[in-house]
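R.M. (postdoc): so does anyone remember the format we settled on? I'll just put the structure tokens first.
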């Protein structure tokens, strides 16, 4: 059986919203986005996304910033696996799954 990008992505990121959130933030490390915006761009609910972003932040993959009453997240480019995970996301996420360049 020939491996495809879709199967690799599904295997590595069984929770599609996790893969989409990581792609959105790690492939654009200069951007800070708030939870509702990330949820909207990834097609999930803010409550679900908030829990996932909190887990990723506790793991050190994301940084959390409080701006006024808004909670914003961005990639943590100093994390030891940042470069490798970003490269993996570029290789496995297809345009159909998430077109991060348009956001």
């Amino acid at each position: 059986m020939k491996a495809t990008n879709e199967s690799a992505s599904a295997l590595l990121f069984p929770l599609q919203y996790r893969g989409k959130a990581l792609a959105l933030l790690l492939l654009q490390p200069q951007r800070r986005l708030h939870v509702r915006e990330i949820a909207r761009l990834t097609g999930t609910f803010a409550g679900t996304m908030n829990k996932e972003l909190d887990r990723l932040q506790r793991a050190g993959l994301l940084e959390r910033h409080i701006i006024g009453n808004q909670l914003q997240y961005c990639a943590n480019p100093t994390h030891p696996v940042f470069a490798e995970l970003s490269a993996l996301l570029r290789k496995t996420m297809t345009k159909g799954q998430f077109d991060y360049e348009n956001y």
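R.M.: ...and that's the designed sequence above, right after the tokens. Also worth knowing: The chain has one domain: 5-93. The CA atoms of residues 13 and 19 lie 5 Å apart.
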